Amino acid sequence: LHRLDRQTSGLLLYASSYNSYHLAHLQFASRRTRKEYVLFCHGWLLPGPTPRSIEAPLLEVSVASSAKRSVESPRGRPARTELLVAYPLLGPAGECLSLVEVQLHSGRM
What we know:
Largest sheet: 5 strands, antiparallel
Number of helices: 1
Strand content: over 45%
Distance between the termini: 18 Å
Order of helices and strands: EEHEEEEE
Low-confidence stretches: none
Shape: extended
Strand order of the largest sheet: 3-7-6-4-5
């Protein structure tokens, strides 16, 4: 049905029936599907109001033979990610980490 985050996790979404395929297809087409992630970040995020919105134009660039990534660029396409919650943590070697929950609204790659 759909391959989410092909460049990262490669999560695959499939339907067990035609009816569920059709309903999921309609949800993607109408942008009713929510993409939420929980991730680790290096460093601690400064306290602030939540949710916070991160908006920046992102441009897809090649970084290796077949690898690509997104970078902030005035020539990029608009993207918005909402930071829902962040928890400061210490890693195994004492490094500062943050456990962050985000929701992509118009993410790029």
